[in-house]
Inverse folding.
């Protein structure tokens, strides 16, 4: 029923009521027309104004912009704790625990490739010796950012006090060196996609930062950079104590980045800059 039909009904009802008392039958048609002009016109005007108001509201609505957003101060939901919680279990390692970091800059989504996040190459002037990789007659000094190098030395000393000998296998790595390693991995695996599960493309390795290090068991050279390292005394010690020393495992089993399990690969997060460097990787891991 439209506005005009509704108006007619109202007028006819009023006329019916009045006709029973004062209006003669021959004047009903004339009276009906007069009442309709007096009542119908205002009703039409009101209906028009209402329609224009509704149209104006609809025209200013933009999907997604009229939704109430939560205040910026609301904290995100707490992260799930990892099943491999690394906790200090002795006084020697507890003393190495860093002070908690007060605040970090917001996460800025960085470029990723084949499951690996992009990392910038560290300034060589900020590197320091973390130790020496020795196997037989071969020796190579391994470098890390200074605070990471010092933390690794202290962690190695703490492990040695408990009869465990850690050895640095590979620390800082340039983008150029990583390009050579990745090409060799492609040749071994037969393709880039498969190779990326075991090695990072150039520009996407944590080793570029100077905060990541491959660790071995000095007494078991046959486990260097192999899954078998997870069965060594050195790995078991790291799982229990590395976090207290400022280190965490980058690629545990079933990691969120979908990369191969690397029990030997650890990253330093014990300084504000180191923690910020790996904040996105940690966010991905904690929300897996």
């Amino acid at each position: 029923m439209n506005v005009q039909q509704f108006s007619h009904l109202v007028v006819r009802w009023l006329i019916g009521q009045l006709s029973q008392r004062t209006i003669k039958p021959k004047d009903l048609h004339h009276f009906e027309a007069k009442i309709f002009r007096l009542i119908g016109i205002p009703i039409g005007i009101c209906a028009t104004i209402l329609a224009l108001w509704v149209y104006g509201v609809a025209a200013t609505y933009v999907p997604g912009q009229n939704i109430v957003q939560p205040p910026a101060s609301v904290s995100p939901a707490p992260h799930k704790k990892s099943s491999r919680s690394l906790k200090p279990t002795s006084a020697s390692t507890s003393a190495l625990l860093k002070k908690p970091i007060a605040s970090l800059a917001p996460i800025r989504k960085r470029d990723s490739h084949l499951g690996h996040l992009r990392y910038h190459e560290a300034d060589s002037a900020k590197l320091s010796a973390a130790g020496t990789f020795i196997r037989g007659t071969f020796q190579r000094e391994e470098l890390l950012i200074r605070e990471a190098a010092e933390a690794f030395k202290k962690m190695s000393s703490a492990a040695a006090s408990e009869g465990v000998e850690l050895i640095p296998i590979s620390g800082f790595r340039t983008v150029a060196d990583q390009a050579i390693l990745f090409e060799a991995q492609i040749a071994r695996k037969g393709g880039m996609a498969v190779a990326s599960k075991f090695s990072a493309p150039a520009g996407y390795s944590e080793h570029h930062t100077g905060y990541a290090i491959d660790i071995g068991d000095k007494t078991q050279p046959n486990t260097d950079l192999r899954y078998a390292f997870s069965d060594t005394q050195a790995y078991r010690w790291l799982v229990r104590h590395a976090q207290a020393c400022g280190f965490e495992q980058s690629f545990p089993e079933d990691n969120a980045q979908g990369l191969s399990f690397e029990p030997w690969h650890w990253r330093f997060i014990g300084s504000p800059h180191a923690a910020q460097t790996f904040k996105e990787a940690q966010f991905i891991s904690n929300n897996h």
The longest strand covers residues 127-135.
